[in-house]
């Protein structure tokens, strides 16, 4: 109801914490079995317990089935089947099953009951019982699970193998056995009609188009730290690791593992393919390697590379290879193979280059840690520079800056912002001009319109869940998929464009993390273009810290049903506001605080539901509530008036409830809050001011002198008439003071005050002051300092005092000022601490 999980354990009334099976009957009761003889029923927030005393026998209840007549059947591991009726359990008389262990039950669409046991499969139809065993073609007699698919095929999982029941034309039954070596634990059919098989010892298998696909081959990646992904021209996938291994995959199958000794101990950060089909590997410190006909060729700064740490490799339309390094950009020109380098010293907007992108006009966009550098006609710049600079030198071309190619060929964007990825929107109309989407590290997502130079920012302030975006793709459905520091985000591009055109003031993004099947929501090499890829069939592969996460956007169902919105309660100054329609008829009076509590009852990703609310008459715009926040709204010091509180919600896909829910109420003013009262008060105030001015001018001076004399006399009388303190009270307080000083050493407290000491002895501060002044004949400061000085003298007299400096001694006894320490010490001893220390050394 609140969108959060509520946990039920033995403390909340449930019988056991280890649950085996849960089933909801047609009446809304929730039935729960455990790894024991107990069964619980949960209804209306209350648990009811059943066991042998209610007729339910056996030590373990495996499963529950509700038949077409509404009868509940319970399978006992040792005692057969029981039927529940009128609050009691009765043995279901089935010949041949009394002594068998019932593992599972299933009722098919015809109403036949199939019973899986450790001695084969039983079919109950119109009170006729039929038993099928391995002798009839079953792969094994131990039946683990049963399911009927959408084509009315009955699938039977067994301890050894999967079986499909077939009927011949003569009505006889045969079994087709599949996956014989494996133990089947669970069966499921998806919306496309594919059968998913969960096994005990072989992972997950999918049966589609009469072919089984295994989903266990990529488990080798779980032991590796994955740094880079690349899809070559043949559609094969290459995966680079932190240890220098290179995996070659085709589909979901691993073809080979390459472990060249030259790459041992270095991470493969980037992978690319040149025009000749050679593979290039960018490493974390060893430069780049070319795999050519099985041979590795290495290139480093000695060969002209800007830096030996290469995070990304890009092949442009002229077949040049662009290497993004930790110290600039290097270009290996095709076909002569010469290296040309551009660094921050040459005019790049940053030192570390994250990515390189070429738009449809063949301009090169360089994303770096301090912004974007746009190179127009880079080929001409490279040719000109190669004729005037030292080709192949580290850092490259410092004698010929980028501007030498012509200032009109270079542009800068987002200076000072770390840019991770750039993408040109090819769907934009020509009259709108080129539009680029830019991911940043800390400044959200950007939309750059080159025609007018306008940059739109999408950040947490307007709906993004984070401002740290890495790589992203666009799918065929018009969604952007973004890697971020909070997992994978999906955003409709049309919504982003609507925001840019001012048609909406908020955007919505759907986040995917561990709750959605990802093994991790954190990524490796997130700045590199090789940290994710898009395959030929539209799948998106992302490198996480715990392996590869794959998503097919076409297969993700979009929930188009908006969540219902309920205003649960509302309170005005702690008093509950009546129901929605009645509130206006029963107005409250005065002003004060009001609170609203609301929810959206939904079981589909309740943690991702977002709310927005507005109090008409107070709020000028909607207030957006991020997912996970408390579903409540509070207003302080709300004045009299008529208000309408409206709240609405959207699901994880961004589908808003257009109606929402509203609560209208009126706060009527008290008389002192009315306009008449305010006018009256204003007039009275004016009269009072005028009277005060008159009195001041005529009587104030003389009266002031008179009053001053009277007050002085009264003060003196009060001083004479002070009541004496009781001797017993003084003695009691003195004992407490001595305890605090001599035992608790309260004087060592640097922040001690008259008030804090009074609290320790449980009296009022003014009484403590009187005891010190009248009975101990000293003020508070002298009293505290006397104890401090005595302890300081003891320290200086001891062997420790010879080693400690005076500042340390002062601090240890409670002084936080050396000036105060010196004055107090000299006042009590007649000498300075240093003189006393020297005197003590001489006496020894």
Keywords:
extended, 844 residues, five-stranded mixed sheet, Methylamine Dehydrogenase, Chain H, four-stranded antiparallel sheet, 11 helices
Query: Looking across the biggest beta sheet, what order are the strands in?
Result: 50-56-55-52-53
For the record, the CATH class of the domain at 10-214 is Mainly Beta
- What would CATH call the architecture of the domain at 10-214? 7 Propeller
**Mean pLDDT score, rounded?**
82
Whole-number radius of gyration? Answer: 41 Å
SS content category: alpha+beta
Alpha-carbon distance between the termini?
A: 82 Å
- CATH-derived topology of the domain at 10-214: Methylamine Dehydrogenase, Chain H
Helix proportion:
10-25%
Largest sheet, in brief, is:
5 strands, mixed
What fraction of the residues are assigned to beta strands by DSSP? 35-45%
Large-scale geometry: extended
**CATH level-four homologous superfamily name of the domain at 10-214:** YVTN repeat-like/Quinoprotein amine dehydrogenase
Put the structure in a nutshell.
With 844 residues, this protein is an alpha+beta fold.
Commentary on this structure:
By secondary structure, this protein is of the alpha+beta class. Among the domains are: 10-214, Methylamine Dehydrogenase, Chain H (7 Propeller); 566-673, Immunoglobulin-like (Sandwich); 675-722, no CATH class; 729-843, Arc Repressor Mutant, subunit A, CATH 1.10.10. Helix content is 18%, strand content 36%. The protein contains 11 helices and 56 strands. The strands form 14 sheets. Strands 50-56-55-52-53 form a 5-stranded mixed beta sheet, with no helix packed on it. Strands 1-2-3-4 form a 4-stranded antiparallel beta sheet, with no helix packed on it. Strand 45 (532-534) and strand 46 (540-544) form a beta hairpin. Helix 7 packs across helix 9 (806-813) and helix 7 crosses helix 10 (818-829). It starts with 18 loop residues before the first strand and ends with a helix. Residues 383-406, 580-585 and 702-719 have low confidence and may be disordered.
């Amino acid at each position: 109801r609140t969108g959060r999980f509520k946990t039920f354990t033995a403390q909340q009334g449930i019988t056991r914490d280890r649950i085996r099976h849960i089933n909801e009957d047609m009446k809304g009761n929730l039935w729960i079995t455990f790894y024991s003889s107990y069964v619980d029923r949960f209804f209306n927030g209350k648990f009811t317990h059943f066991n042998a005393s209610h007729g339910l026998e056996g030590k373990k209840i495996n499963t529950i089935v509700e038949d077409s007549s509404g009868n509940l059947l319970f399978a006992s591991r040792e005692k057969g089947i029981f039927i529940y009726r009128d609050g009691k359990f009765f043995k279901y008389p089935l010949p041949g099953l009394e002594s068998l262990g019932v593992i599972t039950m299933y009722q098919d669409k015809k109403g036949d009951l199939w019973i899986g046991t450790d001695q084969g499969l039983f079919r109950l139809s119109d009170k006729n019982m039929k038993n099928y065993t391995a002798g009839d073609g079953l792969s094994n007699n131990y039946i683990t699970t049963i399911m009927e698919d959408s084509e009315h095929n009955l699938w039977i999982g067994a301890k050894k193998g999967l079986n499909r029941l077939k009927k011949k034309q003569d009505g006889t039954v045969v079994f087709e056995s599949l996956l014989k070596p494996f133990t089947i634990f669970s069966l499921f059919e998806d919306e496309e009609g594919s059968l998913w098989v969960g096994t005990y010892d072989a992972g997950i298998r999918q049966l589609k188009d009469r072919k089984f696909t295994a989903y266990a081959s990529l488990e080798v990646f779980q032991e590796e730290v994955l740094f880079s992904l690349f899809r070559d021209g043949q559609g094969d996938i290459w995966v680079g690791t932190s240890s220098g291994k290179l995996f070659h995959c085709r589909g979901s199958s691993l073809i080979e593992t390459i472990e060249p000794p030259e790459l041992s101990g270095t991470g493969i950060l980037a992978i690319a393919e040149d025009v000749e089909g050679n593979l290039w590997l960018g490493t974390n410190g060893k430069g780049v390697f070319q795999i050519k006909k099985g041979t590795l060729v290495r290139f480093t700064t000695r060969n002209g590379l800007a830096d030996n740490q290469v995070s990304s490799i890009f092949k442009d339309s002229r077949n040049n290879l662009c290497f993004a390094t930790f110290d600039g950009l290097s270009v290996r020109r095709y076909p002569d193979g010469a290296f040309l380098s551009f660094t921050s010293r040459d005019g790049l907007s940053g030192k570390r280059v994250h990515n390189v992108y070429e738009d449809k006009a063949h301009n090169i966009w360089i994303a770096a840690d301090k912004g974007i550098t746009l190179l127009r006609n880079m080929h001409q710049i490279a040719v000109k520079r190669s004729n005037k600079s030292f080709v192949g030198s580290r850092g490259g071309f410092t004698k010929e800056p980028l501007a030498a190619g012509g200032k009109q060929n270079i542009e800068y964007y987002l200076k000072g912002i770390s840019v991770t990825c750039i993408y040109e929107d090819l769907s934009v109309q020509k009259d709108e001009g080129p539009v680029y989407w830019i991911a940043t590290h800390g400044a959200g997502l950007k939309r750059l319109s080159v025609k007018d130079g306008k940059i739109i920012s999408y950040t947490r302030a307007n709906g993004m869940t984070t401002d740290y975006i890495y790589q992203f793709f666009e799918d065929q459905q018009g969604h952007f998929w973004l890697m971020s520091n909070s997992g994978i985000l999906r955003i409709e591009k049309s919504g982003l464009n609507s925001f840019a055109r001012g048609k909406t003031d908020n955007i919505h993004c759907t986040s995917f993390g561990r709750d959605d099947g990802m093994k991790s929501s954190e990524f490796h090499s997130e700045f590199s273009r090789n940290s994710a890829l898009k395959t030929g069939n539209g799948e998106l592969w992302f490198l996480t810290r715990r392996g590869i996460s794959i998503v097919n956007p076409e297969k993700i169902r979009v929930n188009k049903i908006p969540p219902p919105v309920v205003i649960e309660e509302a309170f005005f100054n702690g008093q509950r506001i009546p129901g929605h329609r009645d509130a206006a008829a029963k107005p409250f009076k005065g002003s004060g605080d009001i609170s609203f509590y609301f929810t959206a009852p939904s079981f589909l990703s309740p943690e991702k539901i977002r709310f927005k609310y507005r109090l008409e008459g107070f709020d000028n715009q909607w207030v957006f509530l991020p997912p996970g926040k408390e579903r409540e709204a509070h207003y302080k010091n709300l004045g009299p008036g008529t208000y309408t509180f409206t709240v609405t919600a959207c699901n994880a896909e961004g589908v808003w409830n257009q109606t929402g829910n509203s609560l209208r109420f009126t706060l009527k003013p008290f008389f002192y809050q009315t306009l008449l009262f305010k006018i009256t008060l204003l007039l009275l105030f004016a009269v009072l001011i005028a009277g005060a001015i008159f009195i001041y001018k005529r009587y104030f001076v003389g009266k002031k002198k008179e009053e001053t004399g009277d007050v002085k006399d009264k003060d003196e009388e009060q001083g004479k008439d002070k009541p004496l303190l009781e001797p017993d009270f003084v003695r009691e307080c003195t004992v407490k003071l001595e305890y605090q000083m001599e035992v608790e050493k309260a004087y060592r407290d640097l922040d001690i005050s008259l008030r804090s000491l009074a609290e320790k002895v449980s009296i009022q501060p003014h009484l403590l002051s009187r005891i010190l002044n009248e009975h101990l004949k000293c003020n508070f400061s002298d009293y505290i300092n006397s104890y401090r000085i005595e302890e300081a003298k003891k320290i200086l007299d001891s062997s420790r005092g010879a080693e400690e400096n005076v500042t340390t001694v002062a601090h240890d006894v409670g002084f936080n000022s050396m000036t105060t320490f010196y004055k107090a010490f000299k006042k009590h001893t007649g000498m300075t601490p240093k003189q006393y220390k020297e005197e003590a050394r001489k006496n020894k």
